Amino acid sequence: MSVSTGLRPKGPIERLLAANSWLVFIFFYAPILVLVVFSFNANNNVGIWTEPSLHWYREVFANETVMGALKNSVIVAGISTFFATILGTMAALSLERFRFRGQRVYDGLLYLPIIIPEVTMAVMLLLFFAQGFQWLDAAVGWSPSFGLGTISLSHIAFNISFVAVVVRARLGQMDPRLEEAAADLYAGRWQAFRMVTLPLILPGVAGGALLALTLSLDDVVITNFVAGPGATTLPVYVFGLVRRGVTPLINAVSTVMLVASMVLVAVSFGLQRGSRSRVSGSNDR
Amino acid sequence: MGSGGDDGRGALTTETVAPARPELEEDARRADSRRGFFISLPAWIYLTVFFTVPLVIVLVYSFATRSSTGRTRLADWNLESYRRLWDPLVGQIAVRSIVLALATTLICLVVAYPFAYYMATRRPALRSVLLILVMIPFWSNFLVRTYAWKVLLGSDGPLSQLSQALGGEPIRLLFTNTAVLIGLVYGFLPFMVLPLYASLERMDWTLVEGARDLYADGWTAFRKVTWPLSRPGVIAGSILVFVPTLGAYVTPAILGGAKTTLLGDYIVSQFLAARNQPFGSALSMGMMTVMLIFTIAYFRSGAKNL
Fold first, then answer.
1. A25 touches chain B (CB under 8 A)
2. Which range is least confidently modeled, A197-206, A214-223, B177-186?
3. Cβ distance A212 to A84 under 8 Å?
4. Is the pLDDT of residue B24 over 50?
5. Chain A closest CA to B233's CA: distance in Å?
6. Which of A283, A277, A267, A260 lies closest to A74 in space, CA to CA?
7. pLDDT by residue (tens digit) across B52-96?
8. Residue in B11, B52, B143 nearest the CB of A238
């Protein structure tokens, strides 16, 4: 099925469009490619190519600070993805499948963390934890400190909304007649959910979880604010290095991070492929 | 707990025709509404504690006083921080940020529209390949992608060497507004492409054919049919680019210099360097207001022409 755009297939406009697309792809990929290539450079100087080597990768994996930061990143991403996926999925279900008082306010509140600038959210959470800990200390004599806990709590706060949006989209695509059919067959709401809805939206839930995982692994600004002295995540550590300059070590770490992202993209595409046909059934456009 | 709007989309139980026992029906609906509320509750509580309360705290702090040691005293409430927002220095930074955000949005739109158009008009198989190729940079680590430009633009970086090899000048773009603009366009271009592609791909192209059958030339058909139909994508993409660029911190911190302070890094510096939390809070509130005004105005203007 090809669409007719009113353009002649080999006309000048069509050629211009194609040229523009090529340029965009070069723009997208050239910088990444340069970075990856130079991460395999033996030279200390980033700009001068001498010979291919895995030297900087060995450095990365021998570097305790990098490995510690990586471990922190994985812990935070795991915790925040787990809780944000549960809370976000529940929020999406309540908005798409139920009607209750205060729903519009809830809907708005759920979108705010997405719309609000990252810096603002970082400021909010910093002041909240600082002030909150002060109050806790005064009230019960317990003063927690900034660290992986505050980072995880903050990541859950922004991830809930993203998960909810993704799961809602999936619920919206779902054929509502499937749930009605379950109800007609005397399934209660819980049963209908467990046996019909949940299996069908599971790819959406997984997609939301992957997005949450990616956002958590990527976050610099908010984490930088709520990390405290002891705990850095990998992006925050790399950000600190990057601000000081360009080194082949950063190139190698960056390449590792890129590969991780690509794996996540691949997984998410695999999930979507396997599920799209099932979700909307024969009702597909 | 009453039921909200019964537009039939909600509770499945309301689908039945003419209930024999209206009270029972009403009870069922109420129970269902209660269930929905309880399902929504955990996220609601979480966001209230870790989002709404922090937002209120920032608002409260913006009226507080900074003591001489840099601590914030929650007393002597005043409007001093908001008065400082009219400082010419702040004005300069705000204008620079808004101009840069608008420029980024415009460039992204101009580049992404023909690109998305091209993608949407390919064969389905090719379309999904192109889509994956756009998704990869979209999902890739933002910090890493910004850093790549620092490598590229450096005075002894590949671009500079290429230019010198061709007999030109070394490139001195790093730490300028141009470098920040390039970095922002690079970072946020996928955010423009994806919604544009979504709306163009979903479009009913027979309408364009219809216009052509009625003797519209290519340009007229585009202007009267394609463009209006893709407007939701234009609006969504523009907001997705404009909002984060206005508050951008990572890109200017990496590619910008001392003379290119933007709202994002200015706010950060109030908390991490200058230690003036009330002023930083007021700045945050100000930035959020500007952002909301632009977003709402844009939505309005878009809705009118839909």
1. yes
2. A197-206
3. yes
4. yes
5. 16
6. A260
7. 999 999 999 999 988 877 788 888 898 989 999 999 999 999 999
8. B143
Q: Is the ipTM of this complex over 0.90?
A: no
What angle is formed at CA A144 by the lines to CA B69 and CA A146, rounded to 5 degrees? 65
Q: Which of residues B113 and A280 earns the better pLDDT score?
A: B113
The answer to whether the Cβ–Cβ distance between B139 and A242 falls below 8 Å is no
User: For residue A6, which residues of chain B lie inside 8 Å, CB to CB?
Assistant: 208-209, 211-212, 218, 221-222
State yes or no: pLDDT of B117 exceeds 90. yes
User: Residue B158: what residue type?
Assistant: P
Q: Which residues contact B86 (CB under 8 A, 6 or more apart)?
A: none
Token pair, residue B296, equals 């709402």
E strand or H helix that includes residue A285: none
Contact yes or no for B44/A109 (Cβ under 8 A):
yes
Contact B250 A239 (CB under 8 A): yes
The chain B residue lying nearest A253, using CA atoms, is: B144
- Write the pLDDT tens digit of every residue in A128-159: 999 999 999 999 988 888 999 999 999 999 99
A243 and B111 within 8 Å at the Cβ level: the answer is no
Share of chain A above pLDDT 70, in %: 91
Largest CA distance in chain B: 89
For residues A99 and B36, the answer to whether their CB atoms sit within 8 Å is: yes
Interchain contact, B111 vs A24, CB within 8 Å: yes
Cross-chain CB nearest to B121 (options A5, A124, A238): A5
Interface test with B, best of A3, A10, A271 (most B CBs within 10 A): A3
